[in-house]
## 1
Amino acid sequence: MQARLIPMSSDYHNSTQRSATLEEETRTTIEEARMVLPGIQALFGFQLVAVFNGRFQDLTGVEQVLHLIALLMVAIAVGLIMTPAAYHRIAERGIVSRKFVDLASRFIECAMLPLMFGIAIDLFLLARLILKQVPLSAAVAIAMLLILLTLWYVFPWTAVALRARRREHKS
């Protein structure tokens, strides 16, 4: 089945903000998951291959377990990202619903958390191999964790709070 492009109305191009239709929200949610999934899958693949690399043996036993934890975190993120598609195919095939949009949005939002930790843990391990300093490697990983937390959660939550505040001032 081929995807069908639906052009946006002229109101979309002439206004600064408007409410999306349920169909547009559904399409946007599905596109968001489609954009995130290939990156997660690529990371997951690299994590799997790393175990068979000779340098993996340079990691301590604890660090190898940390890599396994990072791998599990990314696998959880994959599961969370793919759950809305499975749910829609089984429970709401052919239906566009607010329930699906809300459910899919929550799953995508939740998927970013284990992904963020998986990236940070593996970045710590990579930095440890390169820098050979645990404290500096931990600082690099924590900095990345904070950057991703800010970009993926704080930034959007701040936008929601600002929008709510603007609405309060208008009323």
## 2
Amino acid sequence: MFVFGTADDVFGMAIRIEENGFAFYSGAAKKTQETAIKKLFEELANMEQGHVTAFKSLRATIPAALLETPVWDPEGLAESYLQATADTHIFTIEAAQTRLKSAMTVEQTIDMAIQFEKDSVAFFLGMKELISDHDGKDEINKLIGAEMEHVRMLSRSKWVFSQGGSPRVE
């Protein structure tokens, strides 16, 4: 395998991940009754929406010719990596909603969110390797850092919340 789609395809996947994150966190905020966790999920939903805007803005700064140029991947490693990441990620809003419905406790919902964020970091690291230096690697690094901060926020909130019990979510 010598090429893997285009840079525009990869940016489209990244935007979809962030849109799905927004849908997941919005749904999680509606589902939970715990005020502090509801607020956290609302905050994360807003952050994901900001990431959608950031990826769209970044994509808009890249010349169309570069976006449409096939991504060079002589050994098929990038394609394999991104495909494996995609297979474990919530890539549709419907999948996000289905998984959210299966969560019976706040901790389960937070665990899903943590996994979602870790998968996002893995995808964006792979994405960064596919684009050239002048195509926004610094911006992608900032977004990776933001996703890593989401993991920290969720983990910290899960620990604090676990000290007080585990009410069910509706």
## 3
Amino acid sequence: MSYSDKGLSSKLSDTDKAYLAGLFDGEGCINATFGTKKWIAKTGKEKIYLFPRIQFVISSKENLLLELVKTIVGFGEVYGEKMYGYRITERKQILDIVDALIPFVKLKKKGLQLSKEAVLFLLNRKYRSGWTKGELVFFREKFVLPIQKLLPSGERRGRPPKHKFHEIISKYY
């Protein structure tokens, strides 16, 4: 099943793909984690829902470099002030960029291949369908933890999550 119209891979030259792959190998990462959504029922009872998130990021001190990346790729967003990031969060777009870069990436190929599997898993689920405890645990163990272990630090960095996975699972699922 194809999720892209014509595919980013066919739109980019091999030179562009190699350039982007080099930037990704040096300054990029792909990460899988869980987002949370807090919901309060009319009764006042609170529930926190978990949902998987995957993002493709290239970081740089140079905003112009990342604007060039966005122009070459044709989607994604540039954010930041002193340190900038180019980020793709939409699943079909992540699949497009991963498919385009896998043949050219040298250092982070395993992470791209695993994240491609994760994105395909997410795209094959019914959109906005609820996640069971078993599905969440499966996704975490099959994709989130292995992808995070492939990060240079071996773990997720950045802002710590507001809620811990095991606490939410034990309390709300």
## 4
Amino acid sequence: MRRLFMILALVSFIPAAAYSAAPKGARKKMEKTTVEKATFGAGCFWGVEAAFRQIKGVLSTQAGYTGGRTQNPTYEDVCTDRTGHAEAVEVTYDPSKVRYEDLLNVFWQNHDPTTPNRQGPDVGEQYRSAIFYHSPEQEAEAKASKAHLESQHRFRRPIVTQIIAAGPFYRAEEYHQQYLEKRGLSTCHIK
């Protein structure tokens, strides 16, 4: 029994000793990276996705649909303006490399948050400005960010951005993913 206890103690000590003796670069590989999600609706998702993909700390993005009433909508369904979905981008990021606040700044800078259900020539509920939060912390940061912008009077019209809890996210059809990159373009925003 004593021998078993010694073996168990030794086995549990080895990983900790290996970690502390490992060079810094190897330690990072041993640590688990925490990832979080952020979801934004800012008009046509092509340009929004391209903007977020340029941010260091963003691990992946996907264009899709959220905030609606139907399950598994297609692009054609959403374009009818009857499903209630917004074209949105789901951002997976490493919070040790990029803060949610930084993502909010990218969101505000890449669309006009004062036009209800419209961005440039695109009109319809699917083009609304919305932040879909994934935690109470994201909700608080999004509301504070919006309030800060409103207090600065940066826009001539009131900000109409919705701040609502994230619901099911439906990945858009493959041809929408990284749409601009596939065509050698960087933006399609009209502000």
